[in-house]
Write a structure and sequence with these properties.
- By secondary structure, this protein is of the alpha/beta class.
- It has one domain: Aldolase class I (TIM Barrel), CATH 3.20.20.
- It has a twelve-stranded mixed β-sheet with strand order 7-8-9-6-5-4-3-2-1-10-11-12.
- The longest helix has 13 residues.
- The protein is globular.
- The structure holds S-adenosylmethionine and iron/sulfur cluster.
- Iron/sulfur cluster binds next to helix 10.
């Protein structure tokens, strides 16, 4: 792996001293399912011409890497519906300074792509899995395909992706019955399961504070079943998850609690939307137009300045639950989760 040294002045430090080294790239707003907590049932996707090309994404990342961005995660929409994703992975993995390259996927197309992704240089995979029941899968995603997702998980393990992570949404009235089966599944197959609290980013705008099933409640339910969970080591203090181990050492359980325990003070993330807007937060209202620079013959320096402006404007916290909280106009699939 090539290393790039970034001087202290070059790094992306905001007003609160948060150093931004982590970039989430949405490669498409399209998806092959329609999870109710993310997408509307009927959806009009952006015209393809608006979506950044691989060349444009690669250039953006090359420039961001000179500012200390080291970790990338590809997301969407569903990233595996983008044609030749392994081709993009290969380009990004070769960029000097990029130390970690990960993917978040719903897993439906993973069985057919896992090997090519591994060969192309992808380091890590997270698969979203909210249930082990096909009926519930259909209720959530308005489509069928649970077995295909499970096949994708096992194919990724076969292809050599170790410490595969599962992301499960935590929604009151939906997730309670899934917790123990998912935990047993994770334990049996040496997977890291993480529950993510439902956030006000559903396209239908139905989120209510009381719909979020908190990590604390889930943890209690798990401890009632399995006994006390042991806190795992935390190698990266900026990681949002609190991870625990199973007593037998196989797999683990974690909690991402953005609603009940916001972790904004250690947030080091930036986002690039599929059509090339830079965001400093899932909940930001403002965006910085990188596509305009990329397609308007803008220099690398002007791109660097745009990224700096975006970081400089980052708010201290998302403000969910506060009186003046403003829900972003765009839903999760349009931002990149
Ligand atoms: N399609 C891929 C997938 O589902 O893994 C990648 C994109 S998806 C937007 C990324 C993650 O965001 C998924 O794990 C999904 O469960 C989560 N997500 C979507 N809407 C959410 C919401 N309103 N609150 C919390 N997490 C959400
Ligand atoms: Fe698609 Fe992922 Fe959103 Fe579900 S959460 S609709 S899989 S983008």
């Amino acid at each position: 792996m090539l290393h790039l040294s970034t001087t202290a002045e070059q790094r992306l430090v905001d007003r609160l001293g948060r150093v931004h080294s982590n970039l989430r790239i949405s490669v498409t707003d399209r998806c092959n399912i329609r999870c109710f907590y993310c997408m509307p049932e009927e959806v009009v996707f952006r015209p393809r011409g608006e979506i950044l090309t691989f060349e444009e994404i690669e250039r953006f990342v090359r420039v961001a890497a000179t500012l200390g961005v080291k970790k990338l995660r590809l997301t969407g929409g569903e990233p595996l519906v983008r044609k030749d994703l392994p081709g993009l992975v290969k380009r990004l993995a070769a960029i000097p300074g990029i130390e970690d390259l990960a993917l978040t996927t719903n897993g439906l197309l993973l069985a057919e792509q896992a090997e090519a992704l591994k060969k192309a240089g992808l380091h890590r995979v997270n698969v979203s899995l909210d249930t082990l029941s096909e009926d519930t899968f259909q209720q959530i995603s308005r489509r069928s395909g649970l077995q295909q997702v499970l096949d994708g998980i096992f194919a990724a393990q076969q292809a050599g992706f170790e410490n595969l992570r599962l992301n499960a949404i935590a929604i009151r009235g939906l997730t309670e019955n899934e917790i123990v089966p998912l935990a047993k599944f994770a334990n049996r197959h040496a997977l890291q399961l993480r529950f993510i609290e439902f956030m006000p980013l559903d396209a239908d705008g139905n989120w209510k504070q009381e719909d979020t099933l908190t990590g604390a409640v889930i943890r209690q339910l798990l401890e009632d079943e399995f006994g006390p969970l042991q806190l795992a080591d935390r190698p990266d203090p900026s990681q949002p998850a609190l991870d625990y181990r199973f007593a037998n050492g196989s797999g683990g359980i974690g909690f991402i609690n953005p609603v009940s325990e916001p972790f904004c003070e250690s947030c080091n993330r930036l986002r690039l939307t599929a059509e090339g807007q830079i965001r400093n937060c899932l909940f930001s209202i403002t965006e910085w137009d990188a596509r305009k620079v990329l397609r308007g013959n803008g220099s690398d320096d002007s791109l660097r300045q745009l990224i700096r402006d975006c970081v400089a404007a980052k708010k201290p916290a998302h403000g969910i639950g506060e009186e003046d909280f403003e829900k972003p106009a765009r839903a999760m699939y349009e931002i990149g989760g």
